[in-house]
Design brief:
It is a single chain. The protein is mostly beta strands. It has strands at about 1-5, 10-15, 20, 40-50, 55-60, 65-70, 70-75, 80-85, 90-95, 100-105, 110-120, 130-135, 145-150, 155-160, 165-170, 175-180, 185-190, 195, 200, 205-210, 215-220, 225-230. Helices cover about 0% and strands about 55% of the residues. Strands 1-20-17-22-15-13-14 form a 7-stranded mixed β-sheet, with no helix packed on it. The radius of gyration is 17 Å and the shape is globular. The two termini are about 20 Å apart. The model has no long low-confidence stretch (mean pLDDT about 95).
Amino acid sequence: MIEVRSFNSLGHANHGWLDAKHHFSFASYYDPNHMHWGDLRVWNDDAIAAGTGFGTHPHKDMEIITYVREGAITHEDSLGNKGRTEAGDVQVMSAGTGVYHSEYNHEDVTTRLFQIWILPNRNGHAPSWGTRTFPKGERANQFVTLASGFDEDTDALTINADARVVGATIRKGEIVEYPLGKARLGYLVPATGSVEIEGTTVHTRDGAAISETETLKVTALEDTEIVLVDTIYQP
């Protein structure tokens, strides 16, 4: 089964320096029908103006994955970590028992990113941070695991969750498959391009909530870059 949330129907908050679209209830945007999808709690589609960003603020007991689409973001936290994550890279912060951090766009162009929050498998993990490059060429016509809570995904960034974040770049007309499993949930967003799933078209930056699907088959209607979260059911 697939339910599509069009980009135009998402929650929207424009703060001037930050233009954000919300797939799920977040901050001042509240929609009781879109609170989460399994353990996936937040998917924000952010455009951060050059020379601006999020000042120091706290997080606790949340796995936060940042997928940079354009530009770059610079992270600094109370653990002493500091790093720059640019387009093609992925950043993971496990907030765990608590961490303060800031995220700034020190570039001279707008930074565009997806920020994804996933509930941890338990509270109280030690906080941590990491970033890694995932060349788009290595994702050509196949899913690559970007972040994972499963031990077998040794090439991915680690998260403390029963979940995976995977990505793929697909040429027009090509099909990629992902073994989701009927007991799991998927949430897929094309960063660019458009795809067809189960006869339904998912356009750029739409959200597709997928359930009861053993093998997910995605057909690219044009050259496309997609991100998928594989998560568990949660009431």
